[in-house]
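One-letter codes give the sequence; the integers encode the fold. A sample entry reads:
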Amino acid sequence: QLAAIGMVLIWAGGFSATPERYLGVVWVAIVTEIVDGIWDIYSVAGGLEEPVIGYATVVIHLIWIFTALWALGRARKELEGEAATGTVAA
């Protein structure tokens, strides 16, 4: 799950010519990573998960959240550029 979400976010933010097409997926990824991060912290606090593993995955969740915010920023710039020029990406 972590790898799949990360690949989608990297694609949306870095490789896609039209990052605005992925806005819905990016928001779902953000919510998913927040919930999973909270679960990992809860699991460590409750003794259900080894601290090293739990905190390592929390760091990965944070990386994906920041990647998602980067993708959103790129999409916003694309949308602002379209609004300024009056063009729409195909």
Residues 2-10+24-75 form one domain.
